[in-house]
Design a protein that fits this description.
The structure is a single chain. By secondary structure, the protein is mainly alpha-helical. It has one domain. It contains four helices and two strands, in the order H-H-E-E-H-H. It has a two-stranded antiparallel ribbon. Strand 1 and strand 2 form a beta hairpin. 17% of the residues are buried. Bound molecules: zinc ion. Zinc ion (ZN) binds next to loops. The site of zinc ion has 8 residues, from loops.
Amino acid sequence: MCTEAEALESQYDGYVVEADEFIREVKSELRRDSLIYAVNKKKKVGETCICAGPLCRKQFTKKSYQQAFHRTKCKDQFWNRVRFWQDETKVQMLVEHIDELNHGSEFDGM
Ligand SMILES: [Zn+2]
């Protein structure tokens, strides 16, 4: 089961885009999240942060030295995403899945 692919699929539901363009877009999102993460890590306890969770951006007050996310769910989603995009096999599977979504239907019912 590939939850990252499913999450992306629902996020971009009905939005047909070529795989390489799609991946560029997600990777730039990931870079933005990582940047926010790095900023949050440098902030002091009591300072206002923006959550580094994918598509979250909720404001929160930093309560502990380690905190970079407004809740554990965002932290899990962030790290799941990082791990997913570091795994070339999974990324390749996603590319094939997108190609199938974009082009597979052309051959249906013919
Ligand atoms: Zn969050």
